[in-house]
UniProtKB/TrEMBL annotation:
It comes from the Archaea. PANTHER family: HTH CRO_C1-TYPE DOMAIN-CONTAINING PROTEIN (PTHR40730:SF5), TRANSCRIPTIONAL REGULATOR PROTEIN-LIKE PROTEIN (PTHR40730). Keywords: DNA-binding. It comes from Halococcoides cellulosivorans. The lineage of its organism: Archaea, Methanobacteriati, Methanobacteriota, Stenosarchaea group, Halobacteria. Residues 20-52 form the HTH cro/C1-type domain. Pfam families: HTH_3, ThiN. InterPro entries: Aldolase_II/adducin_N_sf (IPR036409), Cro/C1-type_HTH (IPR001387), Lambda_DNA-bd_dom_sf (IPR010982), ThiN (IPR019293). This is DNA-binding protein.
Length: 299
């Protein structure tokens, strides 16, 4: 695991400092004066000036870095720029280079797994960044799946079409914003089998039910489907859940909206089947772990 801050400390700061120390020396400042201006030791300045510190070639050749170093060297040398202003200007440039730019590229090279993430590594310090949200949702689904895999009896509750545990992003707009199990969860030898790690955009069936419920005003962020049986519905009722039925042959979104209009607080949707349609229970909840816990309490 490689933090973007490590890339900054290891590759960017030494390069920028050495360029700035060299530029100040070229403007007639002594090593002592350069050390005072940059807030570093004189021995460090000596290493920078004499090329004893490795520079990152891509950083030192970046036009924006070169331009800012020249501007700051002029200002620091003649006293028109304070140390604080110089620091602020460098911080602004570094934050800019982190957002899908040079530092982001260096970070991805140092940690190739970032290239496989389904969100850009931008605005990473934002607590509401998409990357953070997607990874938190993926982790929630993993925890829910682990709970189900260790729940005796869950395998028997998996319907013929398979189950899926899904969770969506807070502002989900479509199936690409819903995380689930690729290929669905199937029962093999009485046990539930999760074929692969959760991904976004891989569930159509259960994700569509969840999105339809949310479109109707339901606050759920997660859902799981299990087979429908009156006995399961009775046991579910004993957990304090509220279930409402919808017509599986009607338009899905309209049918779910109509069912929830009768009971907006319902946390279970179900349909009892039709020709070619398997009867299914859909358990809704705040997150994948909460849904898995509820299902584990009645299967």
């Amino acid at each position: 695991m490689k933090f973007v801050e490590e890339v900054v400390v290891e590759s960017v700061l030494p390069t920028v400092r050495s360029l700035l120390a060299e530029a100040l020396a070229d403007r007639g400042r002594t090593q002592r004066e350069v050390a005072d201006l940059l807030g570093i030791s004189q021995s460090a300045v000596s290493k920078y000036v004499h090329g004893e510190i490795d520079r990152n070639e891509r950083v030192q050749s970046d036009d924006r870095v070169v331009a800012l170093v020249e501007e700051l060297a002029d200002g620091l040398a003649n006293g028109e720029i304070s140390q604080v202003q110089a620091l602020v200007e460098l911080e602004v440039l570094i934050r800019q280079l982190e957002r899908g730019d040079l530092i982001a590229e260096l970070h991805t090279e140092a940690m190739p797994a970032l290239a496989d993430a389904d969100a850009d590594f931008t605005d990473v310090h934002d607590p509401e960044s998409r990357l953070r949200q997607t990874e938190r949702v993926r982790g929630s689904v993993r925890r829910g799946l682990s709970r189900l895999e260790h729940t005796a009896g869950f395998g028997a509750a998996v319907p013929q079409v398979g189950s899926n545990l899904v969770e969506c992003l807070p502002a989900a707009a479509d199936l690409a914003d819903v995380c689930g199990v690729p290929g669905r969860i199937f029962e093999v030898g009485g046990r539930a089998v999760v074929p692969d790690d959760p991904e976004f955009g891989v569930s159509e069936h259960v994700a569509s039910i969840l999105l339809a419920a949310r479109s109707a005003g339901h606050p759920a962020r997660a859902a799981l489907n299990v087979r429908y049986e009156p006995a399961l519905l009775d046991r579910l009722d004993s957990t304090g859940a509220t279930a409402v039925a919808f017509d599986p042959e009607a338009d899905r979104d309209a049918a779910i909206a109509a069912a929830l209009a009768d009971d907006p607080d319902a946390d279970v949707l179900y349909q009892t089947g039709a020709f070619g349609i398997e009867p299914i229970l859909y358990v809704l909840g705040a997150d994948a772990s909460a849904v898995a816990d509820r299902v584990a309490s009645f299967v």
